[in-house]
Amino acid sequence: MTVGPLPAPWHLPFELAWEALRAGSRPVGAVLYGPEGNVVASGRNRSREPDAPPGQLAGTDLAHAEVNALAQLPAGRHHPGHRLYTTVEPCLLCSSALMHAHVPHVVFAAPDERWRGVERVPEVGGAIGARWAQREGPLTGPLRPLARFGGLLMEVWEALHQPERVPPHTPARRLLDAGLLDAPTAEAAYALAAPELAGPEPTHPESVRTDPTHRQSAGPESAAP
Ligand SMILES: [Zn+2]
Q1: 82 CA distance to ligand 1 centroid (A)?
Q2: How far apart are the C-alpha atoms of 44 and 31, rounded to whole Å?
Q3: How far apart are the CA of 108 and the centre of ligand 1, in A?
Q4: Prior bond to 200 cis, omega within 30?
Q5: 56-63 contacts: CB < 8 A, separation 24 or more?
Q6: Which of 27, 84, 166, 189 is exposed most, by the fewest CB atoms within 10 A?
Q7: What per-residue confidence (pLDDT) applies to 2?
Q8: pLDDT band for position 220 (cuts 50, 70, 90)
Q9: Ligand 1 mean position, distance from CA 107 (Å)
């Protein structure tokens, strides 16, 4: 299959994920868009790096992309109409960070089976149920290759850093053999990975759990960056 360019709201999150992969950290990127599609904050995973911009985390297992984006928001404010776009399904830490940062909506590209069940946390009710961010993902339909790309980057990271977990002849290993890491940008890596991005739609409980009034969105419609 062939793929077009990375669609607007996903371009920056994936470029950040690519930057993280090339720096040795887990390839996850996150961008917070305001109601007009403006970039409010962005961050990436920096767990395997010594340095981060002021106010962000590095060199710790807590240095997740979503946390590093949300940590830039001023305290004590709510962010109605804001959406965090992240390349991989938010873990429990990042889901909680969304709640504490008063960001009401998160859209993710790839599912992460490790965190299966986190979407049921708001069922406990109370403040958690009331403040839990609406989750949207994984991407399906025409955006399905992006979901696969987000997951594939994580598999590439594992092939590089936890090779015992990745069997031979997987798409990640094929792409590494094809020189994936030489791609200068996520856009170039996406094009190189295109032959590995086909596959069936994922089955995922959140696809049906998402509020039916919210269509599967490619991003802020009008003023996408
Ligand atoms: Zn996380």
Answers
A1: 18
A2: 9
A3: 12
A4: no
A5: 62/93, 63/25
A6: 166
A7: 80
A8: very low
A9: 13
Strands 29-33 and 39-44: antiparallel
> Facing residues of 43 across strands?
30
CB 225 within 8 A of CB 8: yes
Q: Which residues are registered as beta bridge partners of 136?
A: 107
CA of 142 to the centre of ligand 1 (A): 26
Distance in Å, CA 65 to ligand 1 centroid: 7
16 three-state secondary structure: helix
Tell me how many helices (H) and strands (E) the chain has. 8, 5
Q: Within 13 Å, how many C-alpha atoms sit on residue 6's CB side?
A: 27
What are the pLDDT digits (tens) for 162-184? 999 999 899 999 999 999 999 99
Q: At what angle do helices 8-23 and 186-193 cross, to 10 degrees?
A: 90
- Please tell me the pTM assigned to this model: 0.89
Q: State the amino acid at position 80 in one-letter form.
A: P
